[in-house]
Amino acid sequence: MGLPFFVYNLFMKNLIEKAKVERILQKSEIVQILEDSSINEYLFKTADSVRKKYVGDEIYLRALIEFSNICRCNCAYCGIRCDNKKVQRYRLKKDEIIDLSNLASKLGYKTLVLQSGEDCFFKADYLAEIVKEIKKNDIAVTLSIGERFFEEYKILKEAGADRFLLRIETTDENLYKKMHPGMSLDNRKKCLYNLKQLGYETGTGSLIGLPDQTLESIASDILFYKELNADMIGIGPLITHPDTPLKDFPNGNLILALKVLALTRLFLPDINIPATTAMETLNPNGRIMALQAGANVVMPNITLEECKKNYQIYPGKVAVDYTKLEKDLEKIGRKISFKKGFRSDNQI
Predict the structure, then answer these.
(1) How far apart are CA 175 and CA 177, in angstroms?
(2) In whole angstroms, how far apart are CA 138 and each of 141, 144, 191, 244?
(3) Separation CA 145–CA 118 (nearest Å)
(4) Are 201 and 163 in contact (CB under 8 A)?
């Protein structure tokens, strides 16, 4: 005979409080929270209160430049995978990237995210020249360019790069191999630890809703973020692309993605967590829902329109309407920050 609902509900709320205080749970306890829909709102409100205490009410903006959609990888879920011949490929020139970064600075952005496919054309020395030019504007630089050797990461750090985003997507080895043909989970982890060693603010994250993904493997993902002591975590629901092997699979579950985000906030209270575009793509209110479940970052895309339409990791990507964002934030008691937003600036 099971526990009465009110007793069980109290037990689950105590489990969330335990996560809030101890900043860790057993894998089985994480799974219990992920599979129980009755405590969702309590989880979100708890995560939001932790966010408020350690990060505050300001929303950090990161201006995104997608400077190349050429990629050597063949990830099963990604629209710019190398085997997708329907993509119109592009690669911005050095001056074009710098011009966009100057625009970002003039618009008041204090952080720039340079993102691309794993494009081997952009050698570390060449990228370092770009980073040095961007840093003249006193702007924080985040790189999201995939797996590189330690020495390449070192060159870019010495050039002034501040942060690096390298999503792991899943820590389940079998699932990782299925989703990332020819790639190694061990090497992905090695890259992340190399980035931490070099002093980057290191970001990672995962997709929620991959085929054959279990709640146990998602729980392992969250524990990995804690083990890495990641500085940024991006959580997004899978949105299937019609030109990938996952075209016939359903999209990921937004609520489950929000729960993973909320638990991540409890485990790592002072980190930066974006309200990912994928959440708003699935639900018009998805970004605000994420900001009320522990997120504190929004990433407006300032890529040239003719390029942006060809950087389709997933279809239907929603743009950030700055005026609407300000109004939506005001409704929930939040405001835009024009700080660089380093983790070290947060209150822990």
Answers:
(1) 5
(2) 9, 19, 27, 40
(3) 6
(4) yes
Element (H, E) at 235: strand 232-237
Q: Which residue has the tokens 């504190």?
A: 296
pLDDT tens per residue, range 95-136: 999 999 999 999 999 999 999 999 999 999 999 999 999 999
Taking each helix axis from N to C end, the angle separating 150-159 and 185-197, rounded to the nearest 10 degrees, works out to 30
pTM: 0.96
- Read off the tokens for 26: 């057993």
Cα separations in angstroms, 133 against 68, 74, 98, 192, 341: 18, 32, 7, 25, 21
The Cα–Cα gap between 46 and 116 comes to 35
Percent of the chain with pLDDT over 90: 92
* Contact by Cβ (8 Å): 204, 166: yes
pLDDT above 50: residue 1: no
* Separation of alpha carbons 35 and 1, rounded Å: 20
pLDDT digits (tens, 9 = 90+) for 244-257: 999 999 999 999 99
